[in-house]
Amino acid sequence: MEERARRPALRLHPWSSPHGAGGQRRRGDGEAEGMRDLARAIERFGEIYQRVEGGKQRQVIELEKQRMQFAKDLEVQRMQLFMDT
């Protein structure tokens, strides 16, 4: 009896299908285009999010600088008032 070479079994995650998403054998052009549009939208969202977060960070830094200047000015006024009395 001739022994045939055994191929290892393909192991899939329990939630995956051997035919891809939704059990389909191949994606249509419309679905592929939709996926590209989704990828572009996600990328654009990421870029906008980075710009907004960068702006917020700059604003926080500016407010902190203003707070420190105000505290310094207040301390100078307090010292002057103390020296005048």
Radius of gyration: 32 Å
Quote the beta fraction.
under 5%
Number of helices: 1
Question: Structural class, please?
Answer: mainly alpha
The largest β sheet comes out as:
none
Choose one word for the global shape: rod-shaped
State the share of residues found in helices, binned by percent.
55-70%
Mean pLDDT: 82
Distance between the termini: 113 Å
- Uncertain segments are none
Please trace the helix and strand order, writing H or E for each element.
H
DSSP strand tally:
0
Question: What tags apply to this protein structure?
Answer:
single chain, 85 residues, mainly alpha, 1 helix, 0% strand
Descriptive overview:
This protein has a domain at 27-84. The termini are far apart. The chain is built from one helix and no strands. The protein has one helix spanning 29-84. By secondary structure, the chain is mainly α. It is rod-shaped and about 95 Å long. The longest helix has 56 residues, at 29-84.
Helices and strands, with pairings:
Layout: H1 29-84
Give a quick summary of the entry.
This protein is an all-alpha fold and 85 residues long. Helix content is 66%, strand content 0%. It has a domain at 27-84.
